[in-house]
Amino acid sequence: MVNPEGGAGPVGRTPGRSYRQAAERRAEILARAIELFAEHGTDTSLRAIGESIGVSHAALRYYFASRDELLIEVYRQHEQQEKEPSDPEDVPAVTLMERSAERNRSIPGIVGLYATLTTDALQADAHPQTREFVTERFRRVRADLVERIEAGQRAGTVAADVDPSDAAALVAAASDGLQLQWLLDPEAVDVRRSLELLERLLPGNGSRPEPRDSRPG
Amino acid sequence: MVNPEGGAGPVGRTPGRSYRQAAERRAEILARAIELFAEHGTDTSLRAIGESIGVSHAALRYYFASRDELLIEVYRQHEQQEKEPSDPEDVPAVTLMERSAERNRSIPGIVGLYATLTTDALQADAHPQTREFVTERFRRVRADLVERIEAGQRAGTVAADVDPSDAAALVAAASDGLQLQWLLDPEAVDVRRSLELLERLLPGNGSRPEPRDSRPG
């Protein structure tokens, strides 16, 4: 396919310059799509996305094979941008979700994009690529939470009889579901306060499960 | 609008018979749509829905003003059908969600419909009717859970210092999020086992929070 914006594309004849140009243009489209979704949500066709960010439908299709691929790439890019170096391995599972939810408060469009991806993922026949991406993402998130919960058990801050896999799925589910309820009804739902209840199960630093009278001193 | 299937419609001239006919036809379309969603999910246009259930697009538009209205009515109908007389007020909050999730295991299409409605609801401009329906439904679900949690606190089975509103949002969120993860990865996620962890916070019958040695006898 010929680059509709002129010049050779990724499969064109002058790879050196055009590869970089194509990569830059793709990154630019992604960055503008993130802004767009953050403002207006994802309930738009690929054509409408192109129009909103001033890229022809043909050009958009050159960089992204489908609406699904664009949505996935936008979300992936967002995840990389927001990856916090301040979330080291010793941050407890619930605290990690609280921090993530706190960051998401300012970008409801990205939470909407996430909801769109997970809903599309349920329709495996229509959205096989989204299904794979979302399923893998959930596995990655649960595996990360499992490690934090097991670390808590080794440190004695999480009860030893809690199954880490069951708890990881619960924490991820609670975080997702609470953010959705909060977006719909911000006066009625407080994500942080509800997640903090989970700390009774999986306490973080400063809320060890031992009863007060067993502490030294 | 003239009933495209012949005869006077809800606003026609022979209200007695035609009202009933229209109501019956509408109920029939809903019942078939529920079957269809249960099998194939909701990722379909109103036209495709009409074709799949053998109703012309024009006829479908006569009974349902929009795709959103049809999806809402299908979900509402499903909720009425599955309303269990066996869920009296003394069923604890977490048990209620466990029972609902258990029933939903056999109807993944309805869980997909629910996910579609909640995702659409985030796009208030494009789906105002869905936004109102889903927001009101969450309020109703949380209010029901709050009553059960408060009942548990009066009965001494739920810790007195748990905020009922925060806990209600948490339980509803966990249930929604876990069902979604389970649909995507049934081998990796066990909805019941993860929800049972919440019973440590909000115990049901048979798992009172008092330590063993304080029990009589």
Automatic annotation (TrEMBL), chains A, B:
SUPFAM superfamilies, sorted? Homeodomain-like (SSF46689), Tetracyclin repressor-like, C-terminal domain (SSF48498)
UniProt KW keywords = DNA-binding, Repressor, Transcription, Transcription regulation
Annotation: DNA-binding region = 45-64
Q: Which residues form the HTH tetR-type domain?
A: 23-82
Give the compositionally biased regions (Gly residues). Answer: 1-10
Q: Residue ranges of region Disordered?
A: 1-20
Q: Matching InterPro entries, A to Z?
A: BetI_C, Homeodomain-like_sf, HTH-type_TetR-like_transc_reg, HTH_TetR, Tet_transcr_reg_TetR-rel_C_sf
Q: PANTHER family from the entry?
A: HTH-TYPE TRANSCRIPTIONAL REGULATOR PKSA, HTH-TYPE TRANSCRIPTIONAL REGULATOR RUTR
Q: What is the name of the protein in this document?
A: TetR family transcriptional regulator
What is the organism field in this record? Isoptericola cucumis
